[in-house]
Design goal:
With about 110 residues, the chain is mostly helical. The protein has 6 helices and no strands. Helix content is about 70%, strand content about 0%. It is flat.
Length: about 110
């Protein structure tokens, strides 16, 4: 930004600032809202598995849209990340912990 602001100083208009502010708000909020809507419709395991696939979709979009060529090491890294994320979701359920009142009673030194 320090290098680009002096070059863009004459071209910044209120419309450009409004578009930049809109993009700054929409880019993180819109995907998050859509993910929360999807989470309501599917099981947490399925949702987690799809979240584990996000890096692979990023690489695929970079390949198709930006014509980027990932190296073999990068592809191996993405595959390991995706496999680890998917395997973590398929590991099964965790055992239920004690009831909250039992936990609080055990941690309370007075009573």
């Amino acid at each position: 930004a320090v290098i680009g602001i002096p070059q863009a100083a004459g071209h910044i208009t209120p419309g450009v600032l409004a578009a930049a502010a809109g993009l700054a708000l929409l880019l993180p909020v819109l995907p998050f809202a859509l993910e929360m809507l999807a989470l309501r419709q599917m099981t947490p395991t399925a949702f987690g598995t799809l979240m584990a696939l996000e890096p692979a979709f990023g690489v695929l979009l970079g390949l198709l849209v930006l014509h980027q060529q990932p190296s073999a090491t990068q592809i191996a890294g993405i595959l390991l990340v995706v496999l680890a994320g998917a395997a973590a979701q398929r590991g099964g359920r965790r055992p239920r912990s004690a009831e909250p009142t039992e936990v609080h009673a055990a941690l309370d030194p007075i009573g």
